[in-house]
């Protein structure tokens, strides 16, 4: 387990590693107990770590059942931080690979993270993922333009 995230970059690396390893406990260590997530999948919003952990557990279980691993790539990453607050935004690509290492698919979402330093450790207090919507189809656009 993690003893704390002393750098904002530690939070980013934990996110990428925990998704790849499909490790729910590792994943949620970077989140504050009062996390608020605006998600573009399933539920509109998750309030509190227990609801978020439940959603992440379902996500990782689905990946395990499908037999895929996800690699996370952050594009156009911007990090703004001061002594106690940090703001991260990027385009996050999630690439699914099968057991043979074959890339099956990729989606890209826009992500924003708000972080706060608690007891000398960075914690995500707000996360927002989004997609632009096609005006013609009403469906999300998953590819970078």
From TrEMBL:
Transmembrane segments: none annotated. InterPro entries: NTF2-like_dom_sf, SnoaL-like. It comes from the Bacteria. Residues 8-133 form the SnoaL-like domain. SUPFAM superfamilies: NTF2-like (SSF54427). This is Nuclear transport factor 2 family protein. It comes from Lederbergia citri.
